[in-house]
Design the sequence.
């Protein structure tokens, strides 16, 4: 095995060669090639064949001879005998030994491979021996001389090729100077063809014409057998021959390959053509969208490998160009052939709406390519003019910046477009592309000066690509119309919700949040209401670049503005005329234009200060500006002391001189020469150039909407009405309503009749607020009877309903009314307790006492307890009243009134509808909380309810009159009340001490005061 | 170099003779593959194994060109000697169009 290891590499190479030569598979990465390699190795390593036996081979050779004789193929038999003997007696290796094991191995191999030699026709070919030996000597001398004396041409150098004579014949009529230098291994039978080709090419008999053609027409190097071109005989121009000769000399088994000779100019031109997107080339070949370099192309002054490595480098760029070009053709619908997988992505049926983001991207690419091709054409023009020497490396040098840009473009294209799976929805593709560009800009931007060009290019690409998005946003936030036929925008309209529907605000739009890692869209059925949109933004921030990153900071504003605008449009449609709108629209600048103008002015801005000072000193302008700018920067940025940054800024503004000249106006043309827009702080640029416009528009839209809602749709009045009726702010009106109910209860009549309640409500409301009487209605909900055990729960189920017209019902939804109703019920209960205590009269009890005096209890001893009892009743009543009044005061003034004032203030300041909705919800949840209606504090509420219950029982007993109840019940009521009171005081005190509920302080204090007096 | 040179030309001559033998036997090897074979034999490859490999490679590439292609079975089987043994009797290439996925 150690033997194997020594030769492993050589052997491996040979095995690969073998596979290539026998099976014709050229690509080593091919699955089949790997398979064949494995197969071959396993056969070589593990086989059960015997070693070669020379006697056996000799026997077989003799057998074949005999067989041929039997077939009476005497010539063949004789030849066979002769050549095998000759073979065995001549050296196969350079050690000169004959009849070695190797001889027999080879012979046995051929015998194994032989395919009925008797049947095939065979004629011996004459072998040429003489030139070889001669050649050797000549070349040795030649090379030695070349080493010693570095001199010019060697016209007498003979060629080492066997076909030397013929070649010379061919080239003679063409007056070639290079005869004897070129190696042409054309087999004998091909020679006629070659001759013919030459004759055809040069049919223009006249010598003058021929000379002219030789000078002006490109040799047909692409045809199979082209004639050779003239070139210098200098050693340097014949490196390949020297190299080939060297290979030939050191390796007896070396077999030169077929080669096509081209000149470097041809290589350069093919390179230029390749880079400009030409597919049919000779040196570079396209196979299944892959560009490969032809194996057999050589130039005379470079070795095969050297040329190949250079050309492969170029082919990689050619590949990038080809892919981009195919993508461009595909999106523009120009090309018919579809060779790349990308093509499937972009391939659209005619019926499908155009995918504008890709189109914009392609437009940007196209613009880049047209400038790139211009550069290529310039180079080609130079080549044609032949005024200067142009070499391949010089061309590559000249193209370096372009090639670097091409690389960047291709990288962006690969990650942004090509790697996206074919069935991805447009929204994901668009946002992925924009994100990729955005990320690439930031990435390159952070490198700084080194990637200035890349950043400039990417910035241009981005600016172009983002156009459809900005136009969609513009259309949406200006006209309220989300026009996105290809469904590429991250927000999409749900078609089934009409604008004038209550759910419009919540369910109209779907925000597609695109997750980069999973690469699929989660349909957040969010509904893009403000609160949830911001939640999403937060969750999106946790995953990186989840949606179109650049829009993230203003996404909420866009959504708000868009929805507001659509709503506003719908509201306005009835009022303002269409003409006015279109007139206004004509003067308006689109968001994209505004953005471009801002970018332009931002880039111009920093330049003004330095240029003012240095306009006269043109010669030192550049350096002075730099200095000035450094100083300026240092002054400006007190804390940032970064000279590199300052230099960058200086150069940035300087180089943008011509940039913004071309930048103005509607038709914005980016000039490539001026693209040094190093957006040092790309995000800053966005922040200052794009976001303000969106924000401005957002303020306009939402402000308008708020104005319209408040003014034309009387939003605040509706909110006031809600407070009036549900929170009993319209005290007198509601007093009429609820006292009627309480009286009914007091008189032990049934109040739970809808007609009675409605009449009461209508009467109460109709007097003072006639316009609300139609909207307000009362309902009785069925309540579980088991919950109605306590008298205080008697009121459960009584609800108010206020019909809020669209669009105000977006704010005051039915969910809100539920909360209002909960508070309303609590208030009613308190009012009821208060009312029942308030209406008790002392005379009632005294009358009862008086009655008793005349009746049953005429003893002195019995009198005292009765008076005492009555006194206790009075005391208890006052305590209860204190409690209820404290609670009532707390709720009505401390909570409802003050929170209401805060709310009104916030409503005034609300910027958008979403905020308003949020404020309203917050207000409701605050009063809900503070009225102790939350589940968490239900024990407090239960205690309060107990007291209220006690109050009702107390009042009913009071009214029943003295003697209708026992003295123990007073004791019980007193102790119950005391317990509840104590409990509440303790709890509230604790809460106040903790400081978590400052608003409870007043209630706690007043309750405590009542408690201490007990 | 000069001492080696006569041998070189002699070797080249031998190769020519060998090519003639190859042609006479109708083995189907050209100069290039012939020299590869010589090198391989020189490095100790068994000629019989080599010939079987060449035959199989030819067969496989022919069927690849025809388009009638079945999946190749060259997975190693473990024998008692713990020596990976490939299916050395046949080699078939897979064409991309039908069975590409099976290789994964």
Sequence:
């Amino acid at each position: 095995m150690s033997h194997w290891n020594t030769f492993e590499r050589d052997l491996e190479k040979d095995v690969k060669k073998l596979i290539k030569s026998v099976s014709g598979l050229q690509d080593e990465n091919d699955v089949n090639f790997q398979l064949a390699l494995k197969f071959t190795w396993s056969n070589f390593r593990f086989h059960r064949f015997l070693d070669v036996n020379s006697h056996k081979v000799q026997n077989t050779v003799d057998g074949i001879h005999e067989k041929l004789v039997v077939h009476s193929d005497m010539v063949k038999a004789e030849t066979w005998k002769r050549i095998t003997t000759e073979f065995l007696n001549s050296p196969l290796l350079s050690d000169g030994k004959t009849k070695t094991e190797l001889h027999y191995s080879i012979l046995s191999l051929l015998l194994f491979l032989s395919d009925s030699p008797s049947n095939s026709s065979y004629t011996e070919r004459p072998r040429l021996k003489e030139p070889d030996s001669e050649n050797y000597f000549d070349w040795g001398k030649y090379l030695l001389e070349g080493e010693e004396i570095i001199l010019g041409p060697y016209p007498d150098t003979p060629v080492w090729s066997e076909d030397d004579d013929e070649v010379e014949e061919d080239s003679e009529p063409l007056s070639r100077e290079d005869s004897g230098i070129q190696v042409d291994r054309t087999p004998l039978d091909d020679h006629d063809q070659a001759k013919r080709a030459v004759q055809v090419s040069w049919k223009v008999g006249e010598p003058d014409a021929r000379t002219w053609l030789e000078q002006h027409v490109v040799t047909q190097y692409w045809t199979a057998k082209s004639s050779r071109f003239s070139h210098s005989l200098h050693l340097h121009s014949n490196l390949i021959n020297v190299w080939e000769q060297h290979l030939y000399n050191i390796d007896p088994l070396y077999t030169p390959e077929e080669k096509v000779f081209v000149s470097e100019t041809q290589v350069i031109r093919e390179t230029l053509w390749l880079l400009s997107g030409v597919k049919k080339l000779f040196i570079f070949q396209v196979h299944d969208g892959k560009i490969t370099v032809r194996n057999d192309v050589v130039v005379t002054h470079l070795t095969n490998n050297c040329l190949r490595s250079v050309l492969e480098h170029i082919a990689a760029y050619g590949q990038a160009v080809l892919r981009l070009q195919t993508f461009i053709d595909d999106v523009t619908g120009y090309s018919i052939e579809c060779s790349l997988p990308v093509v499937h992505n972009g391939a659209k049926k005619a019926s499908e709406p155009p995918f504008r983001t890709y189109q914009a991207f392609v437009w940007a690419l196209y613009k880049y390519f047209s400038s790139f091709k211009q550069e290529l054409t310039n180079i080609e023009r130079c080549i044609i003019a032949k005024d200067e020497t142009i070499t391949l490396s010089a061309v590559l040098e000249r193209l370096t910046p372009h090639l670097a840009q091409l690389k960047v473009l291709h990288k962006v294209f690969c990650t942004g477009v090509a790697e996206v799976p074919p069935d991805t929805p447009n929204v994901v593709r668009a946002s992925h592309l924009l994100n990729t560009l955005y990320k690439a800009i930031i990435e390159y931007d952070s490198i700084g000066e080194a990637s200035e060009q890349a950043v400039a290019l990417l910035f241009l690409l981005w600016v172009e690509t983002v156009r459809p998005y900005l136009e969609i946003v513009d259309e949406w936030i200006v006209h309220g119309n989300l026009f996105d036929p290809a469904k590429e925008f991250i927000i999409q309209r749900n078609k089934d919700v009409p604008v004038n529907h209550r759910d419009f605000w919540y369910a109209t739009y779907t925000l597609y949040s695109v997750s980069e890692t999973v690469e699929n869209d989660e349909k957040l059925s969010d509904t893009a209401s403000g609160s949830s949109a911001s939640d999403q933004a937060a969750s999106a921030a946790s995953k990186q670049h989840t949606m179109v990153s650049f829009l993230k900071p203003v996404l909420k504003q866009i959504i708000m503005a868009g929805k507001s605008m659509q709503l506003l449009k719908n509201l306005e449609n009835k009022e303002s005329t269409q003409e006015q709108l279109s007139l206004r629209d004509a003067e308006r600048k689109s968001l994209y234009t505004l953005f471009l103008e801002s970018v332009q002015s931002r880039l111009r801005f920093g330049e003004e200060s330095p240029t003012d000072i240095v306009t006269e000193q043109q010669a030192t302008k550049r350096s002075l500006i730099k200095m000035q700018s450094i100083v300026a920067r240092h002054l400006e940025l007190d804390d940032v002391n970064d000279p590199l940054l300052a230099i960058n800024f200086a150069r940035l503004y300087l180089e943008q001189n011509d940039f913004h000249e071309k930048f103005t106006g509607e038709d914005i043309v980016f000039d490539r020469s001026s693209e040094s827009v190093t957006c040092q702080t790309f995000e800053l640029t966005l922040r200052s150039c794009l976001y303000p416009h969106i924000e401005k528009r957002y303020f306009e839209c939402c402000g308008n909407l708020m104005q319209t809602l408040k003014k034309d749709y009387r939003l605040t009045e509706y909110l006031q009405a809600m407070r009036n009726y549900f929170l009993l702010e319209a005290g007198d009106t509601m007093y009429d309503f609820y006292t009627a109910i309480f009286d009914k209860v007091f008189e032990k009549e049934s109040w739970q009749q809808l007609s009675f309640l409605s009449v009461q409500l209508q009467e109460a409301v109709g007097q003072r607020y006639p316009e609300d009487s139609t909207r307000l209605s009362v309902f009785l909900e069925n309540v579980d009877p088991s919950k109605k055990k306590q008298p205080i729960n008697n009121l459960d189920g009584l609800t108010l309903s206020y019909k809020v017209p669209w669009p105000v019902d977006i704010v005051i939804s039915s969910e809100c009314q539920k909360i209002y109703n909960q508070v309303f019920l609590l208030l009613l209960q308190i009012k009821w307790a208060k009312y029942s205590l308030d209406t008790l009269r002392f005379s009632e009890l005294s009358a009862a006492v008086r009655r008793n005096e005349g009746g049953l209890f005429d003893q002195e001893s019995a009198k005292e307890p009765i008076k005492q009892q009555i006194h206790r009743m009075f005391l208890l009543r006052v305590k209860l009243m204190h409690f209820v009044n404290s609670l009532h005061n707390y709720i009505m003034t401390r909570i409802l009134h003050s929170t209401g004032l805060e709310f009104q203030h916030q409503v005034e300041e609300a910027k958008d509808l979403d905020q308003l909705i949020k404020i309203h919800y917050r207000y409701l949840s605050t009063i809900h909380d503070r009225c102790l209606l939350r589940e968490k504090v239900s024990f407090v509420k239960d205690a309060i309810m107990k007291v209220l219950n006690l109050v009702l029982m107390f009042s009913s007993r009071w009214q029943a009159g003295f003697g209708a109840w026992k003295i123990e019940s007073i004791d019980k009521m007193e102790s119950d009340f005391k317990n509840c009171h104590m409990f509440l005081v303790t709890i509230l005190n604790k809460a106040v001490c903790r400081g978590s509920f400052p608003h409870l302080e007043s209630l706690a204090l007043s309750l405590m005061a009542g408690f201490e007096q007990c | 170099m000069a001492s080696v040179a006569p041998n070189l030309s002699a070797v080249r001559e031998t190769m020519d003779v060998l090519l003639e033998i190859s042609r006479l036997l109708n083995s189907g090897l050209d100069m290039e593959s012939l020299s590869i074979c010589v090198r391989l034999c020189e490095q100790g490859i068994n000629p019989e194994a080599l010939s079987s490999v060449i035959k199989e490679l030819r067969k496989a590439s022919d069927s690849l060109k025809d388009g009638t292609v079945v999946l190749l079975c060259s997975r190693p089987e473990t024998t008692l000697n713990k020596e990976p043994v490939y299916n050395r009797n046949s080699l078939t290439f897979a064409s991309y169009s039908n069975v590409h996925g099976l290789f994964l």
Chain B touches chain A through 71 residues (CB under 8 Å). The CA atoms of residues 72 and 92 of chain B lie 5 Å apart.
